[in-house]
Amino acid sequence: MYTLAWMVVGVIQEESINLTKWIAYVQSRAKYAQSTLRRFHRWLHNDRIKVNQLYGPLIKKALEGWDVGKVLYLALDTSMLMGEYCLVRISVVFRGRAVPIVWRVLSHRSSRVSYQVYKQLIDEAYKLVPKGVKVVLLADRGFCDLNLLKHLRRLGWHYRIRIKCNFLLHYRGKCLSADEFHLNPGQAIYLRKVYLTGEKYGPLHVALGWSKDAKEKWYVVSDEPVGVDTFREYGLRSDIEENFLDDKSNGFKLEESRIDSAEGLERLCMVIGVATLYLVSQGIEVVRKGRRREVDPHWFRGLSYLKIGWRWVKKALSMGLRLCKVLRLDGGEDPEPSMASRRDQRRRLKYSFEVVCVLV
């Protein structure tokens, strides 16, 4: 635990994965820097360290205060690391970003993974989310597997999952691919009581939409009745992509770690996960106390909660200010929604109301 704490402090201070630079933040009896570096490497390659078992209590504690009346959106996605490894992660969508819950790293040169790879992650995430809260899983086209849909039904979870254009839909006695429902730009079609594939699994609901500004159509399957909000909900899935970006070039620079094993990268993701959870919690506390503009130069919130927390830590360490001691993800409304500019906000509102709804 001491080694983990030192590594978390190191990655926050240096803003990068650089084991040698982390040494300066370690307080131990080791006399030589090489001894501390070896300690980091031993930790990263220690088979007895099970990341999800150690990280789980932290994220579970942070989610304890989630408002039962607020939906908990989880995003399932993958990200490639150095072209050699595939990171499979489930994250909680939170105020424009996502915070990791469980993950796995595979030695796998493709971002596409089978249900067998991530089904255990689903069960592990189920143990960590608050009981009594409505959970909705969001996922892209590569995850629309009937085994996953059946798994989510057993857990009592809901879902908004994108399907491919050639996915077979059985509707009103006809078997059509999703692409055979012809759409014009700006139109949406909502199908109720649809059955999927040759297995005729269902009944489910499908939202077919093509925004005027989008290059491709969205076909989203849901276990609940669909409407314009279905596209908004599915769109929250992109927040996990911002989470992956924070892991890489926009934050911790994970791909510069030079760790060449799936197990080592999986434990390194735990260091990043703890740092992310702490910095987001710190950002929440700064906004709650009305001190955001001390570190965010924008009139409206222009930084993510992670970046706000990160800048506050830097400010606190240089000026002797207090840091938060509680890990917390509040499920309430965002008191300061992000907005790059008034023009951007008007564009988003216009985009939201230009969809033409066609009920079938």
List keywords for this structure.
360 residues, alpha+beta, 11 helices, 11 strands, globular
Question: Care to describe what's here?
Answer:
With 360 residues, the protein is of the alpha+beta class. The chain is 38% helix and 22% strand. It has helices spanning 2-14, 19-22, 33-44, 51-62, 115-128, 146-155, 228-235, 238-247, 262-288, 305-319, 342-352, and strands spanning 72-81, 85-94, 97-107, 135-139, 158-162, 168-171, 174-177, 187-196, 201-210, 218-222, 356-359. Strands 1, 2, 3, 4, 5, 6, 7, 8, 9, 10 and 11 form an eleven-stranded mixed sheet that branches. Strand 2 and strand 3 form a beta hairpin. Helix 1 packs across helix 9 and helix 5 packs parallel to helix 6 (146-155). The longest helix is centred in the last third of the chain and has 27 residues, at 262-288. The protein starts with a helix and ends with a strand. 38% of the residues are buried. Mean pLDDT is 91; it is low at 349-353.
